[in-house]
Design goal:
- By secondary structure, this protein is of the alpha/beta class.
- The chain folds into 2 domains: about 210 residues, no CATH class; about 150 residues, GMP Synthetase, Chain A, domain 3, CATH 3.30.300.
- The strands form 3 sheets. Strands 1, 2, 3, 4, 5 and 6 form a 6-stranded mixed β-sheet that branches.
- Strand 11 and strand 12 form a beta hairpin.
- Helix 10 crosses helix 11.
- The longest helix is centred in the C-terminal third of the chain and has 25 residues.
- The radius of gyration is 27 Å and the shape is globular.
Amino acid sequence: MKWVQNKKGYLLPVLLAIFILTGCWDSNETERMVYVQGVGIDYKNGKYTVYAQIVNTSTTAKTESMGGPSPAKIVVGHASGNTLNQAMFNLYSSSQRRLFWGHLSYIVLTEETLKQTSIQATIDQFDRYRETRYSIHFYATKDPLSEILKSLPPLEMTTYLSRLGDPQAAYEQRSVIRPLNLRELLIALNEPPHEAVIPYIRLAKETWETETKPIPIIEFAGAALLTRDGIKKIIPFQQFKGLRWLNSDLQREEITLTNDLSDVSLVVTNLKIKKKPIITGKTVKFQLSLDATATLAEILKTEPLPKIEREAEKLLKTQIHDTYLTGLQNNIDIYRLSEDVYRKNMKAWKRLEQNGKIPLKDNSLQKIKVRMKIIHGEKQKMKPTL
């Protein structure tokens, strides 16, 4: 009898271990799911259309194991509905496997969608879903979404390394416009001035080509100015050049000086920005101070460095002021000057704000001070190579 009791004592831990090990029975195996990397959203005739880009990861894995190239083949599906959620469920009807949204990298919204609906429906849909993350990047376009989502990076690179899926890599080489993810978009729309700037993209069909034909490639062409209610304006790059110089995250950007100079080219690599609101009664003026460092990338004949720096300062100052006026014409606080009052002087903010931002005029930007410092000339000295 004592031996039987001891045997039961040994069996108890074994039975408990069996129950613990059953915790993974409801999990999905990796190769049995379909991974959504990109999403496009269109709105026409009162209906949403959702485009989903799925990546064939199993093909990539098999190709790599064989030692050959690793193309990431994609498939784009689409479905429509009266609401965004209904459109997504209609897409599920034709999906052969479960769609996994945990690797969603970006969302592209058409210009028509942003004009006719607010961005709130998109944010609400993807912010509520448990699989999605706040690192999703947002873009706007007027090109067909099916073409945008079927555009592949050159040289058979994986789509995870595309301009849309991984914008930071290209941004570090040229910082035209700062990528914006879901977390940053929520902050921009929830805090003064309740406006956001997202990259505007298009397909460049003649820029790159293989030995047989041109290949369409995504390029950043402008900026979409948004509020909670929808789009305010699409502006091309030529009209928001000054926005680069009020971006503390700038990595690397080029300027060419032609006035009284022989096509001198500089690469700006570092910025220190200060915004100072000056409040007098019911009037708010702003002073901007910008310290920039640059390298001398190209110079065709010997020029005095102080002259080059002065010309660069004039150019940056002009671009900053022109972009400010462009934002003002579209009722957009493009440099988020209202936020500085909100954070630095709450009493003044409560007294002066109108509809969540400080009213701005042409002369509200009282002073722009730019200081340019050329630190070196890349591999060569501060003079022409020849």
